[in-house]
């Protein structure tokens, strides 16, 4: 049943992407504000599967210093606050398209306080660069290749030279998103964990940006050349 619902979900958002970038932005803004009419609509702060996925994601990170961290598609900030607790000396930012979700994310909680900003990753990259960028359960909302190319180019542009980009998406669909990332910039995959031990398999794919200043311009050129990603980039755990 879950797979059937997922398929219907993907079909809906693929259809929405046909109206163009600006129209899609308005609809997604409305859609996620509507979902967030009540707190934590997907149970991200309490669901056992989500908590397991958060812990699994953090386990894949190399042990290093991360001065600036970005969580793209943060919703009400459940994972963003977890990042702030795990890296208390880092400057942690959560970004989302829904203003209603961000208003709840800004509610004070014990511990380090992240900051939260509104962002549509399709229309614009973040204003700054970060040592660690997360994008989880987001890319399948974007539908068409054009939007995916733009979003992935903006994600990779947000990563500081030598920084990490972490994708977390359902498996094996994650393979398709990885192909866009690998075409968007000079990045290399440093690790990938595929979790099959749940009824909803997912992949955590970690990429490292090249430590060169000119990689972003090359990345945007590569993004424009990618029409249909054909490579399978995922591999088993």
TrEMBL record:
InterPro entries: Methyltransf_25, SAM-dependent_MTases_sf. GO terms for molecular function: methyltransferase activity. Residues 218-237 are annotated as: Disordered. Keywords: Methyltransferase, S-adenosyl-L-methionine, Transferase. GO terms for biological process: methylation. Residues 69-163 form the Methyltransferase domain. Gene3D superfamilies: Vaccinia Virus protein VP39 (3.40.50.150). This is Methyltransferase domain-containing protein. The lineage of its organism: Bacteria, Bacillati, Actinomycetota, Actinomycetes, Kitasatosporales.
């Amino acid at each position: 049943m879950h797979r059937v619902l997922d398929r219907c979900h993907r079909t809906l958002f693929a259809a929405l992407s046909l109206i163009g970038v600006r129209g899609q932005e308005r609809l997604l803004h409305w859609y996620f504000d509507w979902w967030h009419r009540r707190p934590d609509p997907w149970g991200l702060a309490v669901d056992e599967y989500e908590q397991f996925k958060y812990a699994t994601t953090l386990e894949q990170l190399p042990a290093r210093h991360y001065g600036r961290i970005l969580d793209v598609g943060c919703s009400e900030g459940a994972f963003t606050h977890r990042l702030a607790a795990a890296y208390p000396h880092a400057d942690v930012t959560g970004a989302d398209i829904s203003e209603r979700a961000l208003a709840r994310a800004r509610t004070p909680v014990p511990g380090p306080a992240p900051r939260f900003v509104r962002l549509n990753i399709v229309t614009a990259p973040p204003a700054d660069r970060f040592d660690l960028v997360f994008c989880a359960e987001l890319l399948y909302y974007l539908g068409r290749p054009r939007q995916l190319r733009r979003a992935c180019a903006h994600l990779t542009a947000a990563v500081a030279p030598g920084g990490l980009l972490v994708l977390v998406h359902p498996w094996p669909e994650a393979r398709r998103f990885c192909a866009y990332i690998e075409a968007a910039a000079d990045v290399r995959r440093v690790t990938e964990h595929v979790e099959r031990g749940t009824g909803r398999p997912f992949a955590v794919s970690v990429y490292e940006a090249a430590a060169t200043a000119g990689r972003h311009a090359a990345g945007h050129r590569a993004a424009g050349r990618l029409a249909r990603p054909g490579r399978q980039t995922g591999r088993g755990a």
